[in-house]
Design brief:
heterodimer, A: 221 residues, alpha/beta, Rossmann fold, Arc Repressor Mutant, subunit A, 2 domains, five-stranded parallel β-sheet, four-stranded antiparallel β-sheet, elongated, B: 482 residues, alpha+beta, Heat Shock Protein 90, five-stranded antiparallel β-sheet, five-stranded mixed β-sheet, 14 strands, 52% helix, 20% strand
């Protein structure tokens, strides 16, 4: 992986931390040099600071995406306005972390990004003791296959692709019920209750917010 | 303090100049009217004097006309014409003729007055003759003989040189007097304006010489007209001083907060460095980490506070739907609370729901989205931080007249009535030393101020604190009418 960060002290701690975890990590402190390096070397993951000498982080990111590279990028920035978050994700970043950050949080986010990529490749989504096979539509907790009905699978897929996002009951009903089936919001609630029960003991967490909808998250740290 | 911006302002008109120009224009108008008056008076006077001479001459000629048989005879008394010669440069023309326009004697072939009916009163007119403007007069006398009576008419003409001289003389004398009076008048106006403006010039000099740290009020003894200006300036100086004092207190507070937090961190790290027992070392490091987290949180909150104020100063506003802003903020906040046992609920007044909605603009307000998100985040963060593990946080959005109210109720300990005002002040926290930053509600308060929204704290039905923010709806006025 590659770390692009101009603050030496912060870079050192990040590098040490990742080396301890057994990762190989390269470091660049200049935007132009990072951009050059990215032209002929491939990385699995890039940690990218925004305020850099030379090209800034957004420019490095844009030119990377312009070359049709889908390397996961985690943006690190000291700017805290939400504006930045949008710009960062719009510019093609996969995730965003505001300085100062918790190292455990950083490592967890990196793990999610790396796994998302390998998971896509193997068609398998894995977190802790939970896995979901997109092809076979099979969920597995603690090595045991979970018996899920058709609608429950659809619901699980929907949540897995929208982790951290609020889904309203109406959105869910629209998606998992066909036009003829006359969606009932009560039925949605029942399916959600069943899914939650079946996923018990897995890192898959589902929170109900009355009046707003549902939000799912993976308990990762 | 930043140096004052020297702006290129549009060219300022001097009040003195404007007053003076106004007055001068008035005086000139009067002078012009007077001149017209003088001119016509001078003309009349000059004509009256010389016409009298002409008439005298005409009369003496008419006296010497008599009928001799059927013939009209004239014995021109040249002495009478000499009186006309008093105007040395002028030329005299005459013609004596009968009512049938038969010339008896003449110096020149003069053209008589048009449509003339012979009578014994004189008639005067102006005409061009031999290349000069000439004043003519004509008078008749009825001669009665034995067999007939006949009108004999004397026509006299005189060039206008002497008249014009006299007229100009009259005119210029009058004009010069009027001009003199105008100048004296303007001079007094100038003195008056200067006297009237003097207090303003004093104020200007005082402000210009003033040191930027001098906040004493202006002390000019004002005339009534300037008193309110001076009291406004003094009021401004007072507010400026207050503002500066507040900023200084704020900077001192911030310095104190950050230094304290950093010293605590430094202290924990130093103790850890001297610790030999691995178990104690672990403890120390834990505490250092906690302190560092607190410092980070404090710094973030301070920056957020500064950002909210900065954005308020720069009026970054747009029209926004409060429902979308609220839902977006909740998604961000609850995303990190999925694992917790806190129960969240959102209830939106059906009148406001846009997708079901009657009124698509019902939740529209004017404001800064980022600041409002900061406010919402702080209210809910507070509710989470102060409340129990199984906290019940109810967020609601409802309307009341032209207001849209965002309310957050929690099941925490709440804030007793007496301390609610204090809770809004910055750096006041109900949490133990070293945990709260005392900035959360202060940030919310700032956002409320910059949106002219009302922040109020109450007791919540859930047993804790109820925080409500009421914004003015954009479509509020029309709604209130319905």
């Amino acid at each position: 992986m590659l770390l692009v960060e101009d603050n030496q002290a912060l870079a050192e701690t990040v590098i040490e931390r990742f080396k301890k975890e057994g990762h190989v990590i390269d470091h660049e402190s200049d935007g132009d040099e990072a951009n050059d390096l990215l032209r002929h070397k491939h990385f699995d993951l890039i940690l990218l600071d925004i305020n850099l000498p030379g090209k800034n982080g957004f420019e490095v990111l844009r030119s990377l995406r312009a070359r049709k590279l889908d390397t996961p990028v985690l943006v690190l920035s000291a700017r805290s306005e939400i504006d930045d978050r949008v710009v960062g994700l719009d510019a093609g970043a996969d995730d965003y972390l505001t300085k100062p950050f918790d190292f455990r949080e950083l490592i967890a986010r990196c793990r999610v990004l790396a796994r998302r990529k390998s998971g896509h490749a193997r068609n398998l989504y894995e977190v802790g003791n939970f896995s979901f096979d997109w092809g076979a539509k099979q969920a597995n907790v603690n090595g045991m296959d979970i018996q899920l009905r058709n609608k429950e699978v659809q619901l699980l897929e929907m949540f897995l692709t929208n982790l951290g996002r609020v889904l309203t009951k109406e959105e869910i009903a629209d998606k998992i019920y066909s036009f003829e089936e006359a969606p009932s919001l009560n039925a949605v609630e029942q399916i959600i209750a069943r899914l939650r029960r079946k996923m018990d003991g897995s890192p898959f967490l589902l929170k109900t917010v009355r009046g707003l909808g549902y939000i799912a998250q993976m308990d990762d740290v | 303090m930043s140096p004052p911006h020297i702006q290129k302002s549009p060219p300022q008109k001097s009040m003195r100049q404007r007053l003076l120009l106004g007055m001068a224009a008035g005086f000139l108008l009067i002078l012009a009217l007077l001149s017209i008056g003088f001119w016509s008076y001078a003309q009349q006077a000059a004509n009256a004097s010389y016409d009298r001479l002409l008439r005298g001459a005409a009369l003496s000629i008419l006296e010497r006309i008599y009928l001799s048989g059927d013939n009209v005879r004239v014995d021109i008394p040249y002495s009478s014409l000499e009186t006309l010669g008093l105007a040395k440069d002028d030329r005299i023309f005459y013609r004596i003729f009968t009512q049938d326009n038969v010339t008896i004697t003449a110096s020149h072939a003069l053209v008589p007055a048009i449509n003339y009916q012979p009578k014994e009163t004189p008639v005067y007119w102006e005409d061009w003759f031999s290349g000069e403007p000439v004043r003519f007069m004509q008078q008749a006398r009825l001669l009665t003989g034995n067999r007939k009576s006949v009108w004999v008419i004397v026509q006299l003409g005189q060039t206008r040189i002497a008249r014009n001289d006299m007229m100009q003389d009259f005119f210029w004398r009058g004009f010069i007097v009027a001009l003199f009076i105008t100048c004296v008048g303007l001079f007094f106006v100038w003195i008056g304006i200067n006297r009237a403006l003097h207090p303003l010039i004093d104020i200007e000099r005082d402000l210009r010489k003033r040191d930027i740290s001098d906040f004493t009020p202006l002390k000019a003894t004002p005339p009534r007209e300037v008193a309110s200006l001076i009291s406004s300036i003094n009021g401004f100086i007072f507010r400026l001083k207050n503002n500066l004092d507040n900023s200084q207190i704020f900077i001192a507070d911030v310095t104190h907060q950050i230094r304290t937090a950093l010293s605590a961190l430094q202290g924990q790290l130093e103790l850890a460095g001297e610790e030999l027992d691995p178990q104690n070392l672990q403890d120390r490091l834990e505490r250092a980490k906690k302190q560092s987290k607190h410092t980070i949180h404090l710094t973030n909150q301070l920056l957020s506070h500064a950002m909210v104020i900065h954005r308020a100063d720069h009026q970054v506003v747009s029209d926004l739907h409060l429902i979308s802003v609220l839902k977006g903020s909740l998604e961000h906040i609850i995303r990190d609370q999925v694992k917790s046992d806190i129960e969240f609920s959102l209830s939106i007044d059906p009148k406001l729901e846009r997708d079901k909605g009657v009124d698509h603009e019902a939740d529209l307000i004017t404001g800064d989205e980022i600041s409002i998100r900061e406010a919402i985040r702080n209210i809910i963060d507070n509710a989470i931080k102060h409340g129990p593990k199984d906290n019940q946080i109810d967020i609601s959005l409802f309307t009341s007249n032209d207001q849209i109210v965002l309310k957050v109720d929690d099941a925490g300990p709440g804030i007793p009535c007496a301390k609610r005002d204090k809770a809004i002040e910055r750096f006041y926290t109900t949490m133990p030393e070293g945990e709260g930053t005392g900035l959360g509600l202060s940030i919310v308060h700032q956002v409320a101020l910059s949106h002219t929204a009302k922040l109020s704290l109450s007791s919540s039905p859930n047993g804790g604190l109820g925080v409500s923010l009421s914004f003015t709806r954009k479509s509020g006025e029309q709604d209130a009418e319905n």
